[in-house]
C-alpha cells in the first residue's frame, strides 16, 4: 500500500503541495492577523543569502546546517527591519522593502562570484519545481520516500506542535500584545519564534515550490479563511482545507493545461480567495450586497411607518396618508411607493382602504419604537 503510494508521482506531488500549504498556513495565520504577512515575502527572498553563506562556510548544499542558516537569515531580516522602524524615520512596509532586496542581492552576487559551478541558483530557490519532487528520494526502511515529503512533513509537525503548545499565548499576543506583555508572556519572543519557524518552512519548501510560491501559501489561505470566519481555530481549518484543495486542483489543472504545477497551485489559492471575497457568508461582496439591500428595504418600511404615524389623527391625515403623497413628501417615485406599501402590507404593518393607508397595531408599535426610545430613557433618568 505504502509502496504504491510512494511510487505514484501524482500522489507525491499533491501530498507535498498540501504539506507546504498546511505548514505555511499554521504560521501564516498569525502573520496575517498581525498585519505582518509581507515579512514572509522578505524571508522567502532573504534566505538566498543564508543558503549561500552556509555553503561558503561548510560546502553543504542541504541538511540541518542549511536549514539553520536560512532560518537565522530570516530572523536577521526581521531584526534589521525592526532596527529601521525603531528610528521612527522609516515605516515598516518601507523597511521591509529596503532590507530584503539588499540581502537577496548580496546572496545573488555571492552565488555568481563563488558558486557558479554549484547546483544552487536563484531560479531553483525562487520558483522550484514541484513536478520533480518524486525523483529526489531517500531510503526509509523498505521504501524510497521523496525527500521533500520528509522535510515538509517534519516542518508541518513542528509548526503544529508550536501552535498547539502556545495557542493561547499566541492568540493573546496577536490580539492584545499589551495585555500579553503585562501578563509576562513575552510576546516578542513568541513572535520571533514564529518567524524562525516561518524561515524554516521557507527553506524546506523552496526545493518543492520555491520561495515565491511559498509566499502565496503563507498569505492567501489564511487571508481566505479570514474572509470566512472570525474564529481563530476555524481560520486554521479553512486555511488548511484551501491549501489541500489548491494542491489537488492545481495539479489536475496543470496537467490538463500543460503549465507549471507549482504556479497553478498558487493560482488556485487565489481562485479560492476570489470565491471567498465574492461569496463569503459574512464578508463576501454578495452577502454584503444582500444585507445592504435588506437594510435599505427595512429603512424604507420604517420611514413609511413614521410618516403615517406622524399624521395619524391629524386634520391633514386624509391628504398625507395616501400613496400619491409619498412622492411629494418622501421623494419616492410611484413604483418605489407601491413596492414599499406592498412590503409593508405583507408584514402586516399597514392596511389599505382605497387610497388611504392605515397603520396596524404592529405598524404603530414599530413607529413608536423608532420615535420614542429617547423619551423613555429621559423618563427613566428622571426617576433616578
From TrEMBL:
Membrane topology of the entry: Multi-pass membrane protein
The keyword Transport is assigned to this record: yes
Transmembrane segments: 12-32, 39-58, 64-85, 94-115, 148-167, 179-197, 203-220, 232-257, 263-285
Primary localisation category: membrane
Pfam families: ABC-3
Keywords: Cell membrane, Membrane, Transmembrane, Transmembrane helix, Transport
Keyword match Membrane: yes
CDD domains: TM_ABC_iron-siderophores_like
Localization, UniProt: Cell membrane
Similarity comment: Belongs to the ABC-3 integral membrane protein family.
Protein name as annotated: Zinc ABC transporter permease
Protein species of origin: Halomonas salina
Amino acid at each position: 500500500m505504502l509502496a504504491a503510494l510512494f511510487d505514484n508521482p501524482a500522489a507525491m506531488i499533491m501530498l507535498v503541495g498540501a504539506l507546504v500549504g498546511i505548514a505555511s498556513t499554521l504560521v501564516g495565520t498569525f502573520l496575517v492577523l498581525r498585519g505582518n504577512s509581507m515579512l514572509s515575502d522578505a524571508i522567502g527572498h532573504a534566505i538566498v543569502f543564508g543558503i549561500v553563506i552556509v555553503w561558503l562556510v561548510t560546502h553543504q548544499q542541504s541538511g540541518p546546517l542549511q536549514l539553520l542558516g536560512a532560518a537565522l537569515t530570516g530572523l536577521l531580516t526581521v531584526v534589521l527591519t525592526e532596527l529601521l522602524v525603531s528610528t521612527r524615520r522609516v515605516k515598516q512596509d518601507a523597511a521591509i522593502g529596503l532590507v530584503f532586496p539588499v540581502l537577496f542581492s548580496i546572496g545573488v552576487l555571492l552565488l555568481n562570484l563563488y558558486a557558479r559551478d554549484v547546483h544552487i541558483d536563484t531560479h531553483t530557490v525562487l520558483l522550484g519545481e514541484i513536478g520533480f519532487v518524486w525523483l529526489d528520494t531517500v531510503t526509509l526502511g523498505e521504501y524510497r520516500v521523496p525527500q521533500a515529503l520528509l522535510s515538509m512533513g517534519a516542518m508541518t509537525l513542528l509548526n503544529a506542535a508550536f501552535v498547539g503548545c502556545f495557542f493561547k499565548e499566541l492568540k493573546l499576543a496577536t490580539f492584545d500584545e499589551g495585555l500579553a506583555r503585562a501578563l509576562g508572556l513575552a510576546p516578542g519572543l513568541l513572535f520571533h519564534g514564529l518567524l524562525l519557524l516561518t524561515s524554516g518552512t521557507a527553506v524546506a519548501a523552496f526545493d518543492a515550490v520555491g520561495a515565491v510560491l511559498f509566499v502565496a501559501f503563507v498569505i492567501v489561505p489564511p487571508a481566505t479563511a479570514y474572509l470566512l470566519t472570525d474564529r481563530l481555530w476555524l481560520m486554521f481549518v479553512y486555511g488548511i482545507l484551501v491549501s489541500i484543495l489548491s494542491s489537488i486542483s492545481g495539479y489536475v489543472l496543470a496537467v490538463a493545461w500543460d503549465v507549471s504545477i507549482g504556479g497553478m497551485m498558487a493560482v488556485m489559492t487565489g481562485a479560492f480567495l476570489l470565491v471567498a471575497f465574492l461569496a463569503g457568508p459574512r464578508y463576501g461582496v454578495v452577502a454584503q450586497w444582500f444585507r445592504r439591500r435588506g437594510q435599505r428595504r427595512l429603512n424604507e418600511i420604517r420611514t413609511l411607518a413614521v410618516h403615517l404615524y406622524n399624521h395619524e389623527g391629524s386634520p391633514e391625515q386624509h391628504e398625507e396618508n395616501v400613496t400619491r403623497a409619498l412622492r411629494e413628501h418622501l421623494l419616492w417615485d410611484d413604483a418605489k411607493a407601491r413596492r414599499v406599501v406592498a412590503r409593508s402590507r405583507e408584514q402586516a404593518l399597514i392596511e389599505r382602504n382605497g387610497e388611504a393607508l392605515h397603520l396596524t397595531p404592529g405598524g404603530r408599535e414599530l413607529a413608536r419604537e423608532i420615535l420614542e426610545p429617547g423619551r423613555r430613557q429621559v423618563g427613566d433618568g428622571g426617576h433616578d
